[in-house]
Amino acid sequence: VIRSRWPIHAIWVANHENGPPPKVVAQDVVVVRPEFDPRPHPLPPGGAAFLAGILQGMTLGQSLELAGGSVDLPTLLALLISNRAITGAAA
Fold first, then answer.
1. How much is the average pLDDT of 9-15?
2. Rounded to whole angstroms, how far apart are CA atoms 21 and 67?
């Protein structure tokens, strides 16, 4: 997880995928490696805080509170599962 006050994902897309010029906005990014090739993905608002909680061993509920409850959890979990960043869960 990378938190930046700069548009780091948009800069990456502009340079690696011939994307549009980035707008100057802060961006949080998660870098995943589903096939051993690092791939950045922009995080939704609250996503970096939520993942920080998960990485610290917090529960889903605690991590949601840390994110201020504003994170789009279904979208974030779909991103992580589809990119094999989540491989298991414990109750």
1. 95
2. 29
Q: Which residues of 30-67 are buried (b: 16+ CB within 10 A; e: fewer)?
A: bebeeeeeeebbbbbebbbbbbbbbeeeeeeeebbebb
The answer for residues whose C-beta is within 8 angstroms of residue 86's C-beta and 6 or more apart is 77, 80
Contact yes or no for 44/76 (Cβ under 8 A): yes
Q: Of 31-35, 60-64, 66-70, which gets the smallest average pLDDT? A: 66-70
Whether this model's pTM surpasses 0.85: no
Is residue 63 within 8 Å of residue 50, measured between CB atoms?
yes
